[in-house]
Specification:
Blueprint (H helix, E strand, L loop, with lengths): L8 H18 L2 H15 L9 H29 L10 H24 L5 H20 L7 H19 L5 H21 L4 H22 L1
Helix pairs in contact: 1-7, 2-3, 2-5, 2-6, 3-4, 4-5, 5-6, 5-8, 6-7, 6-8
């Protein structure tokens, strides 16, 4: 007796894959860090209170250039020079040089925020957490292909749990949104990438722990 798929089944899987790919791009690790910076600068009522509009814009510009634009250009440059076969960095070997380059840019972001007057400490703390996460991923990449997306998701949850205990403002809703987005990120990567569950879980742990290590350093 022949069995047939349920109506619509043939359409669901491609749609799910398309959505998973879309969310993988929308919630790319570089963009997740940018979203964290945007929240701290423009949506958290505490840290940038009294900072002028131009000061906020300058802070965002510093983060955008050093932690988004330069790492992205590094990936494209490596692809153009043939150091990597794809901008997706599908193998552990391809990720080595990009991890090393990214560490330089993320450390510089942390250094600028830590030493530039007028920028709230939380920006240096968040940037240090991201830098630590990249170091952990770089070392872990020697042994297995840890998920960078999951690391970003873990950092997102880590930042808001830190704020939950250290900020007088209410962050319950942002934390709930962060958990939802983290679940979306991890589910998407399981659907459209070759990551195993362990790669995802350890990435989450790395990102989460990094933000708490940074908070401890500044505590």
């Amino acid at each position: 007796m022949n069995s047939y798929p349920a109506p619509g089944t043939a359409l669901v899987l491609p749609v799910v894959k398309i959505l998973a790919q879309f969310f993988s791009w929308l919630l790319h690790p570089l963009l997740v860090g940018l979203y964290m910076a945007l929240y701290l600068i423009y949506f958290n009522p505490e840290y940038f209170m009294g900072v002028s509009t131009s000061g906020k814009t300058q802070t965002l510009f510093i983060y955008l250039i050093n932690s988004v634009f330069f790492p992205l250009m590094a990936v494209l440059l490596c692809r153009g020079l043939g150091f990597v076969q794809s901008v997706y960095l599908k193998t552990q070997k391809e990720r080595i040089i990009l991890y090393a380059i990214s560490m330089i840019f993320f450390f510089w972001t942390f250094y600028v925020f830590k030493n530039k007057p007028g920028i709230p400490v939380i920006m240096a703390q968040m940037s240090l957490g991201i830098f630590i996460a990249v170091i952990i991923d770089f070392v872990a990449n020697i042994f297995f292909k840890i998920s960078m997306h999951a690391t970003g998701a873990g950092g997102l949850i880590g930042l808001f749990t830190v704020l939950l205990f250290t900020s007088p403002g209410l962050v319950n809703v942002p934390l709930a949104v962060a958990v939802f987005l983290a679940g979306l990120i991890c589910t998407s990567r399981l659907i459209v990438s070759d990551h195993r569950t362990g790669d995802i879980v350890l990435g989450l742990m790395a990102g989460f722990a990094s933000q708490w290590i940074a908070a401890w350093y500044f505590g």
